[in-house]
């Protein structure tokens, strides 16, 4: 059971909820804070105080006073009017992460949500109901209004959802799970949609996949080094300690560990004096990507444990402060950075693919073909990798440098953080396909060299590759092989613990 209090959720716990179906509940002490902040909102309505989003309209309508009798109608109108996202639905795992992160933010006790609305949100998560949320339409300030509105529609018995594999009207999905919709009270609609949980959820999922991919890249690169009879001197500690980036040293040590016991690697001068950069500079490039991941993780941990509403309710003082914590700039920057880092993982991988298939750069059969000339072998897999890498260069253009004013210029600077997160996720997905291509080519080349000459760790890696993709004995379509291996790399154990050690 994962217990939420708004301040201690870890990324590992997110993974437990999403991938291991761990149940969620709100801590007792959090309920106390939630009820106290709700009491502040009820008092404001009773006294007729002018407070943004409680007794006023939204955005440019912030100076329009709303009567107490219309407070509930204001909230449902907000949800309906703001639920105008478009595009393909977000993946179910991403949506469930949105539910989890929104529940955690509300559990912090600064939002003025009612206990009944938050309980339903948690119940929906635990019942594995997935609201249908289109992927496009958020500016990343005032938070993720459009996507979170589609999430909130389910809680009031509207919109659509996936339940037990079936697409249903929201009310029917709740009914089948034994749940009932809520009637939103004053401020509750705003409490549900004014936050950064769409961009952050996409970002968390992209980060978890990216962290895994960066680790796999070390293992696959090690197999390529053996296939190309790479020089191991460059991974020795001395040359990295004089440029003491911890991540660079970590990757160099990891590669050496993976290659321990190999009969295929070489030393300086045995075959050649130097390897190309895509082999020689693996610690410097992969290590720099680890630095990116460290930065991104730090920002995500802060964001998933933050109150990102507007306004915020402070029950100790009775203050309700209308601020800007919904602005997604920190996540926008982090997602752009993640996209750039993962684009480079794919980029250097594609260069290693080229060295594996190009007969002018190695002593292997041309394009690793079983019958060069009559059969093209792995020739076009490099084309596919190059295409994906080129696409990543476009996707890596920072979304965070853009801003388009909204709400009649009241909201005149926005983060585009959700676009940045979606782009980063797409880059990571492309990266898995590029690394799958490298793995396929490296496996083919290693078997030509002699699988029995591999290090124990890379021999296990070869066996994992072969469990998804058979050797190329004659030309065939490789599309299914690449997609299947990329999926396997995302979901299977894949020696991650062995690579890390």
TrEMBL record:
Keywords: Cytoplasm, Histidine metabolism, Lyase. One of its GO terms (cellular component) is cytoplasm. One of its GO terms (molecular function) is histidine ammonia-lyase activity. It catalyses: L-histidine = trans-urocanate + NH4(+). The keyword Lyase applies. CDD domains: PAL-HAL. There is a cross-link at residues 141-143 (5-imidazolinone (Ala-Gly)). Gene3D superfamilies: Fumarase/aspartase (Central domain), Fumarase/aspartase (N-terminal domain). The modification 2,3-didehydroalanine (Ser) is found at residue 142. Contains an active site 4-methylidene-imidazol-5-one (MIO), which is formed autocatalytically by cyclization and dehydration of residues Ala-Ser-Gly. One of its GO terms (biological process) is L-histidine catabolic process to glutamate and formate. It holds the Pfam family Lyase_aromatic. Its EC number is 4.3.1.3. It is found in: Cytoplasm. InterPro entries: Aromatic_Lyase, Fumarase/histidase_N, HutH, L-Aspartase-like, Phe/His_NH3-lyase_AS. Signal peptide: none annotated. Pathway: Amino-acid degradation; L-histidine degradation into L-glutamate; N-formimidoyl-L-glutamate from L-histidine: step 1/3. HAMAP family: His_ammonia_lyase. Belongs to the PAL/histidase family. This is Histidine ammonia-lyase.
């Amino acid at each position: 059971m994962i217990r939420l209090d708004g301040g201690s959720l870890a990324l590992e716990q997110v993974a437990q909820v999403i991938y291991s179906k761990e149940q969620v509940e709100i801590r007792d002490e959090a309920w106390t804070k939630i009820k106290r902040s709700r009491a502040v909102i009820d008092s404001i309505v009773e006294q007729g105080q002018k407070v943004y989003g409680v007794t006023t309209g939204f955005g440019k309508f912030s100076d329009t006073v709303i009567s107490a009798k219309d407070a509930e109608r204001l909230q449902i109108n907000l949800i309906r009017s703001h639920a105008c996202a478009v595009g393909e639905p977000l993946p179910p795992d991403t949506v469930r992460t949105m539910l989890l992160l929104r529940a955690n933010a509300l559990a912090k006790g600064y939002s003025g949500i009612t206990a009944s609305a938050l309980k339903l949100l948690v119940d929906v998560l635990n019942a594995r109901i997935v609201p249908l949320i289109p992927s496009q339409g958020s500016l990343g300030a005032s938070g993720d209004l459009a996507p979170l509105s589609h999430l909130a529609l389910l809680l009031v018995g509207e919109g659509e959802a996936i339940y037990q594999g079936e697409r249903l009207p929201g009310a029917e999905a709740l009914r089948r799970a034994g749940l009932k919709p809520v009637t939103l009270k004053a401020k509750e609609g705003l409490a549900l949609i004014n936050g950064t949980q769409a961009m952050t959820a996409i970002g968390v999922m992209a980060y978890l996949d990216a962290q895994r991919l960066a680790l796999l890249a070390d293992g696959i690169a090690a197999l390529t080094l053996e296939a190309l009879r790479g020089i191991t001197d460059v991974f020795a500690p001395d040359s990295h300690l004089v440029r003491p980036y911890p991540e660079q040293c970590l990757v160099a040590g990891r590669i050496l560990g993976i290659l321990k016991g190999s009969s295929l690697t070489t030393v300086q001068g045995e075959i050649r004096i130097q390897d190309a950069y895509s082999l020689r500079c693996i610690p410097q490039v992969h290590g720099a990507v680890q630095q990116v991941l460290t930065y991104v993780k730090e920002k995500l941990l802060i964001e998933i444990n933050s109150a990102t509403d507007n306004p915020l309710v402070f029950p100790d003082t009775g203050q309700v402060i209308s601020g800007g914590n919904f602005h997604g700039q920190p996540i926008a920057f982090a997602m752009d950075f993640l996209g750039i880092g993962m684009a480079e993982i794919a980029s250097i991988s594609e260069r290693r693919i080229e060295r594996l298939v190009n007969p002018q750069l190695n002593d292997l059969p041309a394009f690793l073909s079983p019958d060069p000339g009559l059969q093209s072998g792995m020739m076009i897999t490099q084309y596919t990798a190059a295409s994906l890498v080129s696409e990543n260069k476009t996707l890596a253009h920072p979304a965070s440098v853009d801003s388009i004013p909204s709400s009649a210029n009241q909201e005149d600077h926005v983060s585009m953080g959700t676009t940045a997160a979606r782009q980063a996720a797409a880059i990571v997905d492309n990266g898995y396909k590029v690394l799958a291509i490298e793995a396929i080519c490296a496996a083919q080349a290693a078997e030509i060299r002699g699988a029995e000459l591999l290090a124990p760790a890379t021999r296990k890696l070869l066996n994992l590759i072969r469990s998804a993709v058979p050797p190329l004995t004659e030309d065939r379509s490789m599309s299914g092989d690449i997609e299947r291996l990329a999926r396997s790399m995302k979901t299977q154990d894949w020696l991650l613990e062995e690579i890390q050690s």
